[in-house]
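Progress against Task 2.4 (sequence-to-structure conversion) is shown through the following example record, which the project officer requested during the mid-term review.
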Amino acid sequence: MRTQTGERPGACQLCHKSFAQARNLKRHMRSHTGRKPYKCQLCQKSFAEGGHLRTHMKTHTGEKPCKCQLCHKSFAERSKLKLHMRTHTGDKPYKCELCHKTFAQGDHLKTHARCHTGEKPYKCQLCQKSFTISGNLKKHTRTHTGEKPHKCKLCQKSFTLSGHLKTHMRTHTGEKPYKCQLCQKSFTLCGHLKTHMRTHTREKPYKCQLCHKSFTLSGHLKTHMITHTGEKPYKCQLCQKLFTRSGHLKYHMRSHTGEKPYKCQLCQKSFAVSCNLKQHTRTHTGERPNKCQLCHKLFAQGGSLNRHVRTHDGEKPYICVVCNKGFALIGNLRIHKRTHTTEKCNKPSAGSRSSAKRIQLQRGIQPQLLKMGSGSVATISQDAKLFLEKSFGWGLCGEMFDTETEFLEHCNGHRLSPPDDLFIALC
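Structure tokens generated for the chain above:
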């Protein structure tokens, strides 16, 4: 009758909340006392209510009686199914009064409200760091304990977070559930797709506060900052050469050991770096996965696409620190820098072979040799000074390249067939 009359005779003496039935008040009091009289006999976990214990037991039995009629996903609790249905209906009944953002679950709104209040009620007892969500505190605590409770059944590797295990399993299954709607490329992680999309949008959200250069990834900005500080913390123990990144030191060590662990299955050519093998493979397949969204021109390498896009947007990211002149290509900046020094070089005119010396690439020649990016060598005379900053430089048009693959791809535009004929400017 009290449910019909609205009478609520039972009131909590601590928070003054009222209840129509005494048993409801009794259950409520446990939220103040912390008493949990219902204990699981399998894992000793305790609960304040018998219904919660019954629901928990399903985690041991694997029982999931509540099934979604739309996608056939199963749940242990009817309430979880109800929440899941909102992913199909799009229903978000909980609204933030401050920013009007809506949520499917009340708990999500409660957590969201803390971004307005700044409240972080969950504190680590070891380092005093605070968190807005209890789950984040639980995850954080594992950084102190070293606990990795989530184990891969296939390779026995353990992980701190269940999400990390889920992502790891894709290395076994090959699953790539995140697909780019523009180029159809697939990714293992949502974050990788998000980063990839910036190759289409040209978004570079990470900006250097010293030179205002922008980057697609935060890691790239971090690496760039070393160019300002000059820090090179990674040292080769054999030749004492210093590097800004550990990966660069790792690749460098292969120049001492001669290791080339990445082998082409088509021509058996080996490479020290995996990305070089990937680029090389495209010379066999003809694949050009990088497409310009403005003129639809295709490129084998992302770097080549980036350089090409600058012909559309006019971007000149390489700035001379002496005169602030900008350049679209880093090689052109290097050439320009020599105008500020005593070093001069006569650049060959476009299409002219008279001002450049033809160098036949040969293998195994012992006189003065120049190692090329592919392992080939070029013979040069003792009195000739070769202007070459990296592996491949100046062809007929005066452009410079960082890798052999970029050079070969560019030469296709001139209808040349390197490495039989390589034109390099001599100073």
